[in-house]
Amino acid sequence: MAGAGTRARTGRVAVLLAAATVAAIDLTAKAASEVRLADSSVDLGLLQLQLAYNSGVAFSMGDRLPVGVIVAITAAAAVAIMAYAWHRAPQAGWVERIAGGAVIGGALANVVDRAGDGRVTDYLHTGWWPTFNLADTFLVTGFIVIALLHARPERTTDTATAPTKDLTANPPVTDHPPQT
């Protein structure tokens, strides 16, 4: 049973490391955007780097709610996602663990960013979609990957690709003769 405990720890550490990495990348990008994009934008073709702030939740919905309510709702969602990932990590494959970490890290980065001044820093602008940030991208991508993995249950664990033993070819040896 020590293998199950090790697998659980390894899975949970992988999710936490992915979440911490994603949150660090996003919070660093937000800080850099506030400094570099304060008075300008950068045109990258289909994507522009342009500083914006979102006082609501997704697509600025709920922007008239009190900041404390929005922070509480988004923090509760992040805690629910973390609880699910904590429970699921021991059985999950590496892709699902990283996707779960991306969702958690994105959610936490947005909660941390919002807790400071009541709004989330956005900097990725397309012109045809609301301005967003890397945390949003990690969140959405992580959810899509997890949904796709769960649509194909045989792919959700590392053991799904391991060959199975065919016990019909060589039945296990026992001390008892077979009964007919």
TrEMBL record:
Residues 157-180 are annotated as: Disordered. Residues 1-31 form the signal peptide. PROSITE patterns: SPASE_II (PS00855). Keywords: Aspartyl protease, Cell membrane, Hydrolase, Membrane, Protease, Signal, Transmembrane, Transmembrane helix. It is found in: Cell membrane. It is a multi-pass membrane protein. This protein specifically catalyzes the removal of signal peptides from prolipoproteins. NCBIfam families: PRK14769.1 (NF011351). This is Lipoprotein signal peptidase.
